[in-house]
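Pilot study result, target chain (515 residues):
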Amino acid sequence: MAYLGLLAAAPPVSQEQFARLATVVAVCWWALCFAIIFLMQCGFLLLEAGSVRAKNAAHVAAKVLAHTAIATFCFWLVGFAIKAFAWPLCYLIHQRGTGTLLANLEDSITGYVGWAGAAASWAPWHFNAAPAVYVSNFFGSLTFCITSTAIPGTVFSERFKFKAYLLFAALYSGIVYPIFGFLIWGGLGGSPLLDPHGWVVQAMDRLFTPEVGSALGKKLIAYGMSADATGTHFWAPYTDYAGSTGVHALGGIVGLVGGWYVGPRLGRYRRDGSPVAIPAHNVLLTAFAALLLAFCWFGFNGGSVIANAAAHPALGKALFSDIWWVMVTTALAGAGGTLGALIAGYRLHRAADPLVLANGLLGGLVAICSCVGFAPPGYGLLVGLVAGFQFPYTFRWVERTLKIDDAIGSIACHLASGVIGGLMAGIYGQLFWWGVLPPDWIHPGGELQGGTSIPTLGIQICGFLALVVYGLPVSYAVFKICDKLIGVRSKPEDERTGLDLAEHGLEAYPAEGGV
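Predicted structure:
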């Protein structure tokens, strides 16, 4: 009873004190979530190692350990400056509409801060990490970068030289991923997919959103939507809340090109071109890895709540509502992906293949990343079902039609599911902009205030086209560089022996253990 009396006598909390407490909670939650994302590397290691042959399992472990370290260094050295601020082109490019140099930009619509306001010098690693500065999200961006770096190598596993992979990881994390990340997230002041002053966004806004002064427009203004720089239509930029396209589809398309460039594993295809299955050496390891990655996905999407809503004036309220919205939607998307793969597996093989189920689970989680911030849990289930259902069909098409040897199914899981997620985000968003959906079917309006935007179908299609136009030639250039400098394909005798012994001088499962 004495404690209750003390609580009753406590002075009321001021708005400033509440804001400080909310900031502390947000920072702690963010740090925890992104540490969980870092744990995804364990999942990728076990997923790939379990899906390939035992003679290459230690090689996979070396790859994951190496690319984690390389991506951390390269993203700190130069990658983050490129992704968030278009360094060094920010000293040359001017924002369309305002004419402001990107390095000096302080955009009134987006709150975007240019490199000059967020860095201590011109050097790309001299960004400020103070909590009040935009670039305090470096660690979160880093974990996304490492995650994306892990994806391509799973496609061309078991036949890629280790030294060439080290160079590939550096090029991908330091250049390839950051440039595309600028288009998807970082360049509110310069990306054609995001900039409210840019012609692509404004063109899509004119075609796919109502006029601000219309009856529907007035309702949307009251709901919390804002106009683009023209003031006549609504700002609906490309939206990828947690990385369906920026992390997963990019990794998938680079892996697709890599699998084509390197060629299939020895014995993967017969003389007539028909595929020969190379079984996973440890199905239990793969299934466990998928569940571990699914757990980490709650950090992946849950951490994006703070990344997107940290500047909101009612942060505490946003945390309470957004986290549960995102978590439940993520869970249902994973369930939908597993169920979709289960249905498709029975249709194709008359059996429930646990490897297909594992990839269906991950495919559903990949797909929901785009729209998890504004689509409801029921739609998350639908997105997951579509992504999971397509997996075995897309995997078969890649294997039999494209003749690309995807060692663990990452093209279907990450590329196809990522594209599906981006487009389905546009479909749901478009129904909102047309006034088809009731307001309480869309987050972040009304009582649920968040930090995401709601896209149109048109701008999401533009994002898909950007992925293809950028991803295909850049991927080819990267593998060509690796091939010219080092050589990418393992020797046939090394591949037959296994890369564990050939590249690292040990085995993951030695025949005779030591005392």
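One observation from the pilot: Residues 315-349 form the longest helix (35 residues). A full batch analysis is planned for the follow-on phase.
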